[in-house]
Design brief:
The complex is a heterodimer. Chain A is α/β, with parallel strands linked by helices. Helices cover 20% and strands 38% of the residues of chain A. In chain A, the strands form three sheets. Chain A has a ten-stranded mixed beta sheet. Chain A is globular, with a radius of gyration of 22 Å. The two termini of chain A are 23 Å apart. By secondary structure, chain B is of the alpha/beta class. In chain B, the strands form two sheets. Chain B has a six-stranded mixed beta sheet with strand order 6-7-8-3-9-10, sandwiched between helices. Chain B has a four-stranded antiparallel beta sheet with strand order 2-1-4-5, covered by helices on one side. The chains are: A alpha/beta, B alpha/beta. The structure holds adenosine-5'-diphosphate and magnesium ion.
Chain lengths: 447, 258
């Protein structure tokens, strides 16, 4: 049940609604030596102070109610806060793809650890935390910081822009092809506001695979949130495979604004996996800005209990001959709820584009609910755009069929659910990621 | 020697009485044919034996290996040794034939021995290939999604493949011949003949006699209006081929209803 709006009746016969806001102050904005970072943060802070907490009267927030978000109670972690908290689970640090990763960044509350193989850094690849990047690579930073996601886009984008204490820059120079995947982990125990800013710049003709995971244990305290920005540029002829997995604790409020901009003939294979958090509102956008660019977005989610996951996706075809292909599939248990809202936009003149989007949901319990809202806005005439949205239940006949072969009920259900997710698995070129999703299915089915 | 003993089985769907007291015994090693016009309750009998939730048993018992299987769940019945080749097999998208069969085999092994780790993959692959060869199936079949986009003939073959792999003691084949062309019919029938033997009792449900040219039944029964009205040897099937079901209708419709 959504909470009642807080209406405060004052004694002076005036009724007014108090605008709630976070308790952060200007002094929470990290100090930047780099001028452009400093002015970016100042601008983001200004936007953050100006913008109100989104309400369900705003279209993108219509299905995601923040009235229970304990805004006043969030605090930033102090330097070194992680030392008193649960350590990063070893499993999280293991490479998910290939036998070895080429580099790893681990974010923790009030701390970060960076590793990069010499063989990779020798090729000019930069994979480092934001603090180091602002000192050593100001020019690269200014090529991407705030260029893809604007702090003014929303309250949470502004918050992340202004306050991100954990951030990274990944840069792959022109023409450099890296085989070994890079890996970053955000481990977020404790009752904190975890704020991240990820910047990925894959220069012309370069290619790389990058995996980012966020996770935390489930804790009783509900004053934990993660707010993040992900800015990605894949320049002309470059290739990026980007895997994002979130398994935040069930108490975590999770918000993110993410966008990837593709140059001419660039390719992006973007994979999302979401099984955690109490509430997630994620904006993910694909900007096909260069002719002939090509983006694929594949999403896997599985919710249970009272989880609420809201994914807002946008495929923008700004240039001719661009293709986008989105498939999000989710299963829901308990009283959980998912929202997927997708839009394909084709700009005037973006001819010969091919856009596809589909969202498929499987409801496993009566009280679970999925909302699926596809959308097309097409302003060019020579295009092909298709979409589909389905919400289904576990059907009796397939289950009976499986049981008639000796397979017990629970296992029959698992088999049907795995079958449901198979089209997503088929799109994921990484065995380790598939295995991760597989074990998430098992775990969620057993609950 | 196990036997399936159906006693006075009465079954309703949505309060309509479909089976009105069926008696039939199928022993391991015997082949029974159950024939009859469409809509007389043959599939209802098959589904009820397997435990489909829509079929409500209002009276009767079905004994198999010292248990009234009507009190068991469908998966328990299957693991006890009963198999139904469906008239209309359903598709399970995203689940391959191989994955499905392996899960089914492991469910059996696990029921017998909770410690069982499952059939090793190489052993399973070898077994599956052997069984596919019996039915002259392309090995790529193992990687296809179960019944998903299968032709009518492929579905029927897949049913028999499952029977071959799971090796039941009592197999019920519901109209396995329908939708098959003559070549496919021959292959499926030969497959069934290879698999049957002293350890398997078979109940072949069919509307036509043509399958019985390939699979020789020991007993033939005719179901009409929810009852087994005639039983005999193979000659009964031949009589039905010659004369159709009209004589059955005439003989048993004359009884006034109510
Ligand atoms: N699921 C069902 N719901 C309602 N009526 C059914 C259902 N299945 C079968 N029937 C009815 O039960 C009777 C017997 O059907 P069925 O057992 O399929 O016959 P057969 O296999 O001999 O052709 C028919 O009158 C049919 O319409
Ligand atoms: Mg039938």
């Amino acid at each position: 049940m959504p909470g009642k709006p807080k209406v405060v009746v004052s004694k002076t016969r005036r009724t007014r609604v108090i605008e709630r806001d976070f308790a952060f102050t200007n002094s929470d904005v990290p100090i930047a030596k780099n001028k452009s970072l400093a002015s970016y943060r100042a601008q983001a802070w200004e936007a953050f102070k100006r913008l109100p907490i989104p309400k369900t009267t705003e279209e993108p927030w219509r299905r995601t109610d923040l009235r229970k978000l304990p805004v006043e109670s969030f605090v930033l972690p102090a330097e070194g806060a992680y030392k008193d908290l649960a350590p990063v689970p070893k499993d999280l640090l293991k490479p998910l793809i290939a036998d070895q990763h080429g580099g790893q960044i681990v974010f923790m509350p009030g701390g970060v650890k960076v590793e990069l193989e010499d063989s990779i850094s020798k090729q000019g690849v930069i994979f480092t935390d934001l603090e180091t990047a602002q000192e050593k690579h100001p020019d690269l930073l200014s090529r991407i910081l705030g260029e893809v996601v604007k702090p003014e886009e929303g309250k949470f984008a502004a918050l992340a822009g202004a306050l991100a204490h954990n951030g990274l820059l990944l840069y792959v120079p022109k023409g450099v092809q890296i085989e070994q995947p890079l890996h970053s982990v955000y481990w977020g125990p404790g009752a904190f506001a975890h704020i991240s800013h990820i910047l990925v710049l894959v220069d012309e003709g370069a290619s790389i695979t990058y995996v980012h995971e966020s996770a935390s244990p489930t804790e009783p305290d509900s004053s934990t949130m993660h707010v993040g920005i992900v800015e990605i540029k894949v320049e002309a002829g470059a290739n990026l495979k980007f895997v994002e997995l979130q398994s935040w604790g069930k108490h975590v409020w999770n918000f993110s604004h993410e966008r990837a901009r593709l140059g001419r003939d660039a390719n992006l294979d973007w994979i999302f996996g979401a099984i955690g958090s109490r509430l997630t509102k994620n904006f993910s956008e694909l900007d096909l800005a260069g002719q002939g660019s090509n983006g694929r977005m594949s999403g896997f989610y599985f919710t249970d209990g009272n989880q609420h996951l809201d994914h807002d996706t946008q495929q923008n075809h700004f240039a001719p001959n661009t293709t986008s292909d989105l498939l999000f599939k989710g299963a829901l248990k308990g009283k959980s709820r998912s929202v997927w809202q997708g839009m394909i936009y084709v700009a005037p003149g973006a001819q010969k584009t091919d856009g596809y989007q589909a969202n498929r949901n499987l409801i496993l319990d009566e009280q679970a609910r999925a909302d699926s809202i596809p959308g097309l806005e097409i302003l060019a005439d020579d295009v092909r755009c298709t979409h589909g949205a389905t919400i289904g239940n576990l059907e009796e006949e397939p289950l009976f069929y499986l049981k008639s072969r000796g397979i017990p009920q629970e296992e029959a259900e698992r088999l049907v659910v795995e079958g449901f997710f198979d089209p997503i698995m088929q799109r994921i070129p990484f065995e380790g990621v598939r295995a991760r999703f597989q074990s998430a299915i098992l775990e969620k089915m057993l609950k | 020697m196990s036997e399936l003993v159906i006693k006075n089985l009465q079954v309703s769907i949505d309060d309509n009485e479909i089976l009105k007291g069926v008696n039939l015994t199928v022993k391991q090693g015997e082949i029974h044919a159950l024939m009859g016009p469409n809509g007389t309750g043959k599939s209802t009998l098959a589904y009820t034996l397997m435990g489909h939730p829509h079929y409500k048993v209002t009276a009767g018992e079905v004994w198999f290996k010292e248990e009234n299987i009507l009190e068991m769940k469908p998966d328990e019945r299957a693991r006890k040794g009963i198999f139904l080749a469906f008239q209309y097999p359903v598709a399970i998208p995203g689940v391959t034939v191989a994955n499905f069969l392996r899960t089914a085999m492991n469910a059996r092994r696990k029921a017998q021995n909770p410690e069982d780790k499952g059939i090793p993959l190489p052993e399973f692959r070898k077994l599956l290939k052997e069984k596919m060869d019996i039915l002259q199936m392309d090995h790529v079949f193992a990687g296809r999604y179960l019944n998903d986009g299968f032709s009518g003939g492929e579905k029927k073959r897949a049913e028999i493949l499952q029977m071959a792999t799971l090796e039941p003691e009592i197999a019920i084949l519901d109209e396995t011949d329908s939708g098959l062309d003559i070549d496919a019919l021959r292959i499926v029938a030969e497959g069934v003949n290879t698999l049957t033997g002293p350890d398997m009792g078979v109940l072949i449900i069919t509307h036509y006699q043509r399958l019985l040219n390939y699979i020789k039944p020991d007993f033939v029964h005719v179901m009409y209006n929810g009852l087994i009205v005639e039983s005999g040897g193979p000659e009964l099937a031949l009589k039905l081929e010659d004369q159709g079901y009209d004589w059955i209708r005439e003989k048993y419709d004359s009884v006034p209803v109510g």
